[in-house]
Structure formats: C-alpha cells, structure tokens
Design brief:
The complex is a heterotrimer of chains A (370), B (292) and C (297). With 292 residues, chain B is mainly α. Chain B is 70% helix and 0% strand. Chain B has helices spanning 14-42, 46-51, 64-71, 83-113, 119-129, 135-148, 154-163, 166-178, 183-190, 195-203, 208-224, 227-232, 239-248, 256-276, 278-289. By secondary structure, chain C is an all-alpha fold. In chain C, α12 packs across α13 (267-296). Classes of the chains: A alpha+beta (370), B mainly alpha (292), C mainly alpha (297). Chains in contact: A-B, A-C, B-C.
Chain lengths: 370, 292, 297
C-alpha cells in the first residue's frame, strides 16, 4: 500500500476510454513523473488525482483514504499549473495565502506560513506585487510557493516549466530538484519533456495512448525500456532501431545487419538468451552514445564491436559531435567525442558497445533482451 | 535604405496626401453638421430660425428654448416639458442595466468556467436572441405584460429590456472570461473556494474593463430604445418617445428651437458616456459585432 | 473497495450550482424569445384581428400580405434602402479607414467625430435630419440665403425620393462605426506582409487592392451582417424622419408590421409580416454566427 495509490483507474468520455487501467503506487517522499506526448492521458490522470475530473472506475487513495468523489479542496493536495493560474487581482502574498484563508486558518498562522515559504523560495521582496508585475521565473516561484504554503500530502505539477525560456527552465528544474531533496515531499509531476523526467524523478511512468507503457526508475527506463515506444521516446537523440536477424556461428549469437554499401555485417551479442531467436527477425536498439569513435568507446564494456562504414553527415554540437551513417537502409546516429577526426563521406571505424544493446520482438515491439 | 524601418510601410505622395486631408475634412463637416445645427438653433429665439439662416450663429443668445423643452413644452396633452420623461428613462435604465449586467456576468462565468454538456447550445440560444427583429415578439409581449399587470409601467419596461439585454451581456462576459485560463478556477477550487466565492473573489475583481463596456452598451441601447417604449410604455413614456411626441405634435407653431433643445437633452446622457468613456464604447460596439 | 464513484455532498452541490445560476436566464429566453416566436408564427396562421384568435386559416394571411400594395411597397423600399445603405456605408467606412490609416495628423480628433452619431438615438438622428432636409428652413433655405437661388433639394417632401433621405440619415449614423471596424482590421494586418509586397514592387494601389483589402474580409462580413440587421429592423428612424411619408412612400416592413397590428387591427397579417422579417434576418445571421462560432470552436 503506497502513500498515493492509483488502482485500476480508467477514464472514459462517453464510449471512448482515454485512460486504461492505470496502476501506480507512489511512496511517501517519492518524485513520480508522468511523461508522454500530448494526448497520452497524463494530464487527465493528474486532474483525476486533483479531483478536477471524475474517475470512471477504479480507486485513488491518499494515505489509505479513498478520495474518489472527494472535493479537490478536501484532498489535502496542492497543484502548480502550466499557466501558473495566479489570481491577477491579488498580491503575491494574498495569492499564496488564499487557500489557507479558504480553509479557515487564522491570520497569524497564515502570515507565519507565508513568511517561511517566502524565505525558502527567496521571494520575500515580491510579496506586495501583483502577478502582472512579475517575470516568468518569478511567477513560477510564486505558483510553487502557493502550493508549499498549504503543506499538503501530495504536490501535483502540471507541466510547470513549459512556459519558461530554455535557460530559465534548466535553472528552475534544478531548483525544484533541490526543493524536493530538502523537503522530501511527495510529488506527481506531468511533463512531455523526457529530460525533465529523467533529471527530476525518482520514478517515471511513460504514458502513450492512455496506457502506462513502463513504470520504473530513470535508469530502468533508459537502460531497459519495455518496448520500442519507450526506447525511442526517452533519450535525445533517440535510440537507433535496426531491423536485424539473429544468426549463430560456433554457438555464438550475432545480429546480422547491412552497411551503407549493402554488405552484411555481424555484431556479436552480449546477451546470453539470443540463441532461442536464431534465424528470426529482431529489432536491434542501440543508443547513439553506444556508437562512438574507437577512442571514445566505454572502457568498462566487455563487448565492443568494430564496424567500418561510410560517414553521412557530421554535426558538431560543442561537447559532442554527432555523426550519421547508413545501416540497414536507415540513418543511424552516432555520438563521437568533440575532437574525433571525422569528415563527411569518409570510411570510418565505428565502435559499437553491444553490452548496451536492447533487443525487441518486431511483432509485439516488446523488449526480449536484456 | 533606412526608410524601410518606419512603422507603416506605405508611403504617399504630396498630392495624394492633400486629397486625403480634403476628403477627411469634408466628412468631418458632414458628421458635425447636424450637431452644429441642433446646438446653434437651440440657443436662438424662434424668430431668428424662421426668418433667418439655420447655419448662422445666434444674434441674441438665449437658453429659453432649453428651459421650455425641459419643463414647460407641450408633450402630448400636458405642458410638462421633457423632465418627467427624462426621469422615467432614468428609472427604467438604471435597474435594467444593472440586472442584465449582473446576469450576463454570471452566465458568462458559468459558460466559460463551469462548462457542462449542452452549454454550447445554451450559449447559441442566448446569442441568437440578440439578433431577432423585435417585431416578432411585440404581439405576445403586449399580451403577457397585460396579463402580468405590468403594461404601461416602469417595471414592465425594465422586464422587457432585461430580457432582450441578457443575450448581449452574456456574450460580452463569455468572450472576456474565455481569455482567462480555466486553471485559475481550478486553482481556486483546490484552494477551497466554491462557485460564488470564486466569482466574487477572483472573477469579479478582474472584470472591470468588460463591465464598463457592458454597462455602456446596455445603457446606450436601452436609453435609445423607441420601439418598446412606444409599444408598452403607455402613459409612462421614456425620453425618446416623448421627444418624438414633442417634435411630431401638429398643433400650434412649430417651435424648432425647443425641438432642437429637446433632441439634445435626449441625446445628452449617451453623448456624455461616449465622451467620457469613448474607448470602451468603441470596444463594446466591436465586441458586439465580432464574436469570439 | 468501491468501484462506483460516490461524490461527496459539496462536489455534487458544486455540480448543480452553475446550472441553477444559468436557469433563470435560459428560462426567460426560452419563453420571451423562442416561445414568443412560436406564438407569433402561430398567430400568423390565424384570423386574429384586434385581439389574438386561435382559428386557423392556413396561409391566408401570407397570401393576403403579398397581395397588399402597402407590403409590396414596404419590401421594395427595404430593398432600395438596405442595398444603398449597406453599399454606401461600407464604401465610406472603408475609404475613411484607409485614409485615417495614413499616419494622419489629428487622427485622435477625427475618429471620435466620425463615430459619435452611433451614440445617438435614431429618434434624435431623425429629428435633426428632418429639419436639415426641410426645404423651408434647412439646407435648401440656407443655400438660397447664401445667394444660390436655383438650389433645389426637397427630396424629403417628394414621394419618389424620400426613401433616399432615409438612406442619407442612416449612413450618417452608422458609417463611422463601419470605419472603426475597418480601421481595426487594417491595424491588425501584419506589417511584414506590406514590406514584402513593397519589395515585390507593388504600387500603393496594388498594395491595397490586391493585398490589404482582401485581408479585410472579416470586417466586410461583420459590416454586412450588422448593417443588414439594422436595415431590416429600422423603425425609429422612419418614424422620426418621415413618419412613413410623404403618403406611404417610405414605409418599411417594420412600420408596416406596427401599423397593421396595432392601428389597423389586422393582427394576423401583422404577425405574418413579422415572421417574414424574422426569416430574412435568420437567413443572414444564422450562417454567419455558425461560421463565427465554428472558427472559435
């Protein structure tokens, strides 16, 4: 039994089911991120936890109390919205204490809580301003402050950083993380940004088409994605997925692929269980950072395969240089050290770390190894 | 090559500009002419009008026509002047504007922030009601007001104007509230505020601009109404009806100067609103024409 | 564990309040607008005279209506009045808007002058123009006094031309408003498009004719709808300006409906004429509103 329990929850609009049997247990102090493309159902799920949308079937409970049908204000939750939803007619201070006022908390207590939170977020000097006079980052802080003042059981964040510019977004991300580590609050956080999901969360639920595709720690999600969708959604640039076939030589299993000239290449598997797929089609998933120049290859890997192929385009990105090449008729992205000596059109020796390869069933797109 | 940086990219020649200014001047005269004639002639003795030039300034300035129009001119059969009718209009306009504005604000709030199945159809019905020709409701309205005992009374006229004003006031508030994120209401719900508290504490304080627009629109429309006043006013006539009676009366000498003074008196409240809050007036007109 | 979702009392109450708040307005509109429309439509099929009667007579009122010369005259007048009123108002409004958009000095003074007639009652407008157009004391008289003895302008007394004086007064009242709508449209056009067109070598004429005016489509549409709506409803202006005369030469459907219903005691015919008016407006408004609302979604 978790702190926040989502059990078998579905949501339908008329005959259309938009959320299918979601089961998530959130422990106290956990930072759960719901991530997925728009329309995947993540915001609907968050609104159902908040009580802003009804539950079609299933149960949501906080601290063991079922809260289906309980009014949002009685669930002891607080929410930070994408648009911040600051009341434009009230000062920052009034915004932050409105919820306490509505719950009948006496004024001295309200002011004490306000003072603490304002200090924590370093917005003491803004308390008398109106939201219209604040910058985007300041509004964001105030919105969080409004949630913190309530001292709720669960914090809900609905894409809180998506209205900020790129640099501020990174700063606020760090700040949210610091805040969570300091306060150990329970957070459910919705975003479509997989980097936010990876950096902030203690666990991630990747959602797509109303299903939770995978629930796990960031490392689990990244290294052992449950299916091709999760594999390609998480990580940037996306994981390379190659149509391939398993072949056996002397009791060892290899993935057979074609290079840019159409010649067959064999990549030795690190995984032991591939023999049962001998002769069958598979999808081979390799992240860009597992395809490098030979000097950049991971020293701890037990299975670096060298592969000579023609370079397509090079894209120096400062810290790294991304290189495309063609394998099995698809553009494959490799991630080189910044000073790797590569040029378009060259034949080059790529180093592939097969320890990190992920294998999927081409029919179900589910992971079969590791 | 620096000329491109100017705001409007269109450049006009000297002759074109002359023509533009002349045209604008001609139209300025066209729009000002009736007002000028009304004001000037309301300040002349009658003899100067019938014997003289309508466009010339008064030789003898007098406010006698204004005094007469206000308190002693013959309206229908009584020599009461326009004063009692002015008061009728005020008594009718103020409650009608207040009620229709409050209802419009509440309706707009519900339709944007508490949407439910079928709310679009309800809004459509309210919106369509703005645009019916009032002739279609005259006959049953006369019957119903009679049955309710409200025919020829101020409350009767208030009822009529509220009923046919709700559509527009709802339209205004709906469009205005739609521009605020629904998240605002959701945040307040989580904070523990209910329907009316959210309206009172969150929505109403931000409604200033649209309330001004709505009040101006309703005030102008109801003050300027003639059809309902003439049809249902009975003895309780509003200003417009009284002015028409004054001007159309066929008995005695036509006292043009008094008529002009009366016309200005009837126009004064709305003109005043226009001068004081013209910006909002225009916004109201536009909002009534361009849906959102 | 429960699977059916039970709302607490507060949540259920909060679900009902919005509907309860909306209910009075909706009720009033359903009775006083839609109910009344149904009632008037019903009356138009009865032999109501001075009082409503419920004896159905089929299409008799409509047949009678379209045989009445007064009605034929009223709709002919409406056709003349509406088409001239709409075309001239839009022409003047567009011209003034384009001219005002040329960085005119004193725009802030001119705009309110063009627009103020919209604040007036049609009764005031009618009264003012009635005297201005009166040959005995108005413009004709003034021109004579200024020495232009042959000047002749007595349309308001001439049953052939009186309808055009209605157009004049109505244009005076609303063309400034049309100007404001076009001006808003012009100010909303992306400046970069104009710069691009100039770089393409478009002359001012081409710029307006080919690039700008086509982008004012929404303003044209709104103007057309509002003006036609005003034209069909026009009642006060006729009463104040011409009283429907000389003779019956400026009767419009709105004045026809009023006099047949309330002074000639032909309620059935009056109701039928009101129904025709409603249908005319509906034919214009419903597609427009539908399109507008669909765009906004």
């Amino acid at each position: 039994m978790g702190f926040l329990d989502i059990q078998n929850v579905t949501k339908s609009y008329g005959a259309v089911e938009v959320l299918h049997r979601v089961d998530i247990d959130v422990q106290e102090g956990e930072f759960l991120v719901l991530v997925g493309p728009s329309g995947c159902g993540k915001s609907t799920l968050l609104n159902m936890i908040a009580g802003l949308e009804g539950i079609t079937s299933g149960d949501i409970s906080i601290k063991g109390r079922v809260i289906n049908g309980v009014h949002p204000s009685k669930r002891n939750i607080a929410m930070v919205f994408q648009s911040y939803a600051l009341y434009p007619n009230m000062t920052v201070g009034q915004n932050m204490t409105f919820g306490l006022e509505m719950h009948g908390v006496p004024k001295p207590e309200r002011n004490a809580a306000l003072k603490d939170v304002a200090k924590l977020l370093q917005i003491e000097n803004l308390l008398d301003r109106k939201p219209g006079q604040l910058s985007g980052g300041q509004r964001q802080r105030v919105a969080m402050g409004r949630a913190l003042v309530r001292n709720p059981d669960v914090f809900l964040f609905d894409e809180p950083l998506s209205n900020l510019d790129a640099k501020l977004r990174v700063d606020m991300r760090t700040e949210i993380k610091k805040l969570h580590e300091k306060l150990k609050t329970t957070i459910v956080y919705v975003t479509h940004d997989q980097i936010e999901a990876m950096t902030l969360s203690t666990r991630i639920a990747v959602m797509y088409q109303g299903f939770v595709q995978q629930l796990g720690t960031p490392k689990e999600i990244y290294d052992t994605p449950a299916n091709v969708y999760v594999a390609t959604f998480m990580g940037s640039p996306a994981m390379n997925v190659l149509p391939s076939r398993v072949v056996m030589h002397d009791g060892t299993s290899y993935a057979q692929i074609k290079d840019a000239n159409g010649a067959d290449l064999l990549l030795k598997f690190s995984q032991a269980n591939m023999a049962q797929w001998a002769g069958k089609e598979i999808l081979l998933g390799i992240r860009p950072e597992s395809i490098t120049d030979p000097d950049g290859a991971d020293r701890n890997s037990g299975n670096i395969v060298s592969l000579r192929n023609r370079i397509g385009v090079t894209e120096p990105a400062g810290a790294d240089t991304f290189v495309t090449m063609e394998l099995c008729g698809k553009d494959i992205i490799a991630r080189m050290r910044a000073d790797a000596n590569v040029g378009a059109g060259q034949e080059f020796d790529f180093a592939i770390n097969m320890d990190k390869a992920v294998v999927f069933d081409p029919k179900t797109e589910e992971r079969i190894a590791p | 090559m620096s000329a491109i940086t100017q705001d409007t990219a269109i450049r006009t020649g000297r002759v074109t500009r002359m023509l533009i200014y002349v045209t604008l001047l001609v139209f300025t005269l066209f729009y000002l002419l009736p007002l000028f004639v009304m004001v000037v002639n309301s300040l002349k003795p009658l003899s100067e009008i019938t014997g003289g030039n309508m466009m010339s300034l008064p030789k003898t300035w007098t406010i006698e026509p204004w005094r007469q129009a206000w308190s002693s001119a013959q309206i229908g059969v009584e020599p009461t002047g326009l004063k009692p009718y002015f008061i009728n209009s005020i008594l009718m306009v103020v409650p009608a504007v207040a009620i229709s504005t409050v209802l419009g604000a509440l309706n707009g709030y519900v339709l944007t922030k508490w949407s439910f199945r079928g709310d679009k159809i309800i809004f459509g019905l309210l919106l369509l009601s703005c645009f019916i020709p009032f002739q279609i409701v005259l006959i049953p309205m006369a019957t119903v007001l009679g049955k309710l005992g409200l025919a020829g009374s101020i409350p009767g006229l208030i009822l009529v104007h509220v009923v046919y004003g709700i559509g527009f006031s709802t339209l205004y508030y709906r469009n205005y509230y739609a521009s605020f994120p629904t998240e605002l209401v959701r945040a307040a719900m989580i904070d523990g505020a209910g329907f009316f508290r959210i309206f009172w504490r969150i929505m109403l304080p931000i409604s200033g601009p649209i309330t001004v627009v709505c009040i101006i629109w309703q005030f102008t429309n109801i003050w300027n109404d003639f059809l309902f006043g003439a049809s249902f006013g009975g003895q309780i006539q509003p200003m417009t009806v009284a002015l028409n009676n004054l001007v159309q009366s066929s008995t005695g000498v036509k006292e043009y100067n008094v008529h002009f003074a009366g016309a200005i008196l009837a126009a004064l409240p709305t003109l005043l609103v226009y001068i004081v809050a013209g910006r909002y007036f225009v916004r109201g007109l536009m909002a009534g024409s361009v849906k959102g | 564990m429960t699977t059916t979702v039970q709302m607490d009392f507060r949540t259920r109450l909060q679900n009902w309040i919005p509907k309860l708040v909306l209910a009075p307005s909706l009720g009033v509109i359903m009775v006083f607008v839609y109910g009344f429309i149904v009632y008037t439509v019903y009356l138009s099929f009865t032999n109501s005279k001075i009082l409503p009667s419920y004896d159905l007579v089929g299409m008799a009122n409509y047949t009678k209506l379209f045989q009445l010369p007064a009605w034929t005259l009223a709709i002919t007048n409406l056709a003349i009045f509406a088409s001239l009123y709409i075309v001239i108002s839009i022409a003047i409004g567009l011209t003034l808007a384009i001219f005002l958009d040329q960085k005119i000095r004193g725009e802030g003074v001119l705009r309110p002058i063009f627009l103020y007639p919209m604040a007036l009652s049609f009764i005031v407008t009618g009264t003012a123009w009635k005297w201005l157009l009166d040959p005995g004391i108005g413009i004709e008289h003034t021109m004579h006094l200024w020495g232009w003895a042959s000047f002749h302008f007595d349309w308001i007394k001439n049953s052939k031309y009186a309808i055009y004086t209605v157009v004049l007064a109505a244009v005076w009242q609303t063309s400034g408003f049309v100007m404001a709508m076009f001006l808003a449209g012009l100010r909303g056009i992306d400046n970069e498009i104009l710069k691009a067109a100039q770089i393409d070598g478009a002359s001012n004429w081409n710029l307006y004719w080919r690039i700008i005016i086509p982008q004012l489509r929404p303003a044209f549409l709104s103007s057309f709808v509002i003006l036609s709506h005003l034209a069909i409803k026009s009642y006060d202006l006729i009463i104040a300006l011409t009283g429907g005369g000389p003779g019956r030469s400026t009767e419009l459907p709105a004045t026809f409906m009023y006099s047949y219903t309330f002074t000639r005691n032909e309620m059935g015919v009056g109701a039928a004429s009101a129904v025709i008016m409603l249908m005319t407006i509906a034919a214009i408004m419903i597609p427009y509103l539908y399109a507008e609302l669909k765009e906004v979604k």
